[in-house]
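hey so u asked for the seq, here:
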Amino acid sequence: MHFLQAVPPTADSQSLPRLSPGEHPLGFLGQGSVGALMQIHDWSGSALGSPASWPQPVLTLVRLMLCSSSPMCLAWGPQLALLYNDAYVAVLGEKHPASLGQPLANVWCEIWSTLEPMVAQALAGQTVHHDNVAFNIERRKGQSEEAWFSFSWVPVHDEGGTVQGFFANLTEITASKHLEAERIESERRAAAAAASIESERSLLDALLEAAPVGIIVADAAGKLVRVNAENRRLWGAHPLSEKVDEYGEWKGWWADGLAHHGQRIKSDEWALARALRGEEAPRDIVQIETFGPTSFRRTILNSGAPVRNAEGEVIGSVIAQMDITDRVQAEQTARENEAKFRNITNAMPQIVWSTLPDGFHDFYNQQWYDFTGVQGGSTDGEGWNNIFHPDDQPRAKARWSQSLASGETYEIEYRLRHHSGDYRWVLGRALPLRNERGDIVRWMGTCTDIHERKMSQEALLQSDQRKDEFLAMLSHELRNPLAPIATAADMLAGGHLSNADVQRLSRVIGRQAVHMTSLIDDLLDVSRVTRGLVALATDAVDMADVVAEAVEQVRPLLVGREHHLQTKLALAGAMVLGEKKRLVQVLANLLGNAARYTPNGGRIALRVSVSGDEVELTVCDNGIGMSAELALRAFELFAQGERTADRSQGGLGIGLALVRSLVQLHGGSVTAHSEGAGYGSEFKVVLPRLHVATESSRPLSAVAHCKHPVARAPLRLLVVDDNRDAADILGMFLDLLGYQVAVAYGSVQALALAQEVMPDVCLLDIGLPDINGYELALQLRTLPGLEQVALGAVTGYGQARDKQAAFEAGFDAHFVKPLDDAKLQAFLSEIDGARGDGCSGLGAVPD
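ran it, structure tokens below
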């Protein structure tokens, strides 16, 4: 029978179960789990069909397979339907029981490409045998695993002798394979570990010898079992101590700056000994003495640690020793240099500071803290910016940023907040320090207090400015009286004057000479007083007499400017010890100053009072007032208020200086006060009171106001000057030349007179009290019919800016007092010529 070829050679045919007559083909199979499953399985959908139709060889092999304890399977039929026993279930895993009766290709689809050539070989009638074959199978869904098998496939024929499948007997050797692999891996690891240990030992030896620190290894008893080359270099020919007690041979002293600094290190204090006791000895700084014939000392950093076994027991110790002699010496040198640097910088009178390359401030000397009064460290980094004056901070920061970016020297003047709360001027300078590559490694800077020098410079500048203003005003004041004197002299030289005219000119010259003499006397007087060359002829002085004479002196000025003088005089007992003439000079100066700096029609108040041992004189006005800065320096020589074109607002700047000097000579004081521009001024003089047996006082009435007389004359030349003598003399001179002249003494009068006489030429003074000459010129040319009137500036201001201002205001010519008659006549002749030619307008005529 061909099916017998399918029975494995080891099977005993006598042991096969026999069917009894009438027994179900699969009745015997119920004895096993798979057999029971086969008995109840629905075979209608299987290619094998009902078991009753299975060939006898198949039934026989199934019975044989189910009785075996080894994994067996049978693939039979056109689809090679799979039948297997209980032992084969372990091979299938989760594929069981769904694989029963299924095509072999479906059951093992994941390895079918490997199985298919073997299946073809078996179906060709050949026995297939393989040992130790690995397959990647999926016993569990979605999980691939590698399994090893040894198997034999035997072809199974039908009754006609045709191969219809194969019978497989297999043994899974996956577990033994894993054990073998583990054994091999274990042996490999052991060999690698041994090689690694040997390699590590060699590496450790190399590291110990190459290490830049000294290494000592001791066993549990303290015996030195290992030292490296660096340790021998550090210590010289040192002994190999056998125990801790012998560590006393090693000479060392504590060098860590603590309480035991400089003491000899005992045997059990060495880091190696402490580590043997289980202690950590991480950073001992000690000084040692080397072994050998030429011993010397080193400073080393000694670090020790215990060596423990797996149970944590100390089985030895190790120390590492680093030579830090050079570092210690360098640090000592650095500390000494730093101390020297601090001493030097603190001894300097300047503030010294330093920053990192990025500008971070990290050092200031003591002068910085003494100057600013800030706490140490509070101005590190960017903190010092708050010490700058707010107005100087942006400029200083921008300049510092520029130096940091470019490496340029930093130099700037700015104000720093002093510990007093005031801001003081300093000169800040900083230079970069560079290394050998040229890189900036630090900035060193200083701040030098230049406040006094700065204030002196500003004072000199202000003094120089006041001097220039004084000289300009003096020039103006001297030219005013010189102008009529020079003109009168020219007229007298002509020899065509009547006796009345000569007398008139003589009086003009006399008045102007007296005025010039007064100016010169004032200059000489203030010079003598400020230099201490004046000695007072002191006597008992009644302040009532002083008030009366002073008011009388300034009455013309008060009346001329239409001021109202109010007096509140408590003169009873107002006696002082002094020189009457000088005291009159003081009060007259204060009243005249108030009159000049108060617009026409203003109010001036004079108060005198007696209080205890003092006599107070107060002069108040509702004039232009003073700024706070001007009030502080009002009594300085040449100090003036804002100088306008009107010379009455400015003065020579010597009157108040003379007042202060004279008051101080009398043992008194004088102060100035103003709420600001436009709020008037107040001057107070306090003098020591003289107590006498008899005191008297006389009331002084207020001064009534009056107005300037108005002179009118319908002429074609209009002369405008508030100096009456100057205006009249110039008018007379022009009249003698044959011109029709009208004279006005103020701007308002000039505007009214101009509309009456319709002048061809207007000669205008610039320093007019009501409307200055520049504004008057503009207003004259707005009058109907005077749009093209020729304008000539006649002024005591002769600097280049004054000329430029005149031409910008529309003047055709600029003449400086005293007038140059030839230039004036040339100017007028040119106008006559232009009128004759029908021309309108003139070119600018220089003075």
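The longest helix spans residues 451-494. The two ends are 158 Å apart (CA to CA).
lmk if thats what u needed
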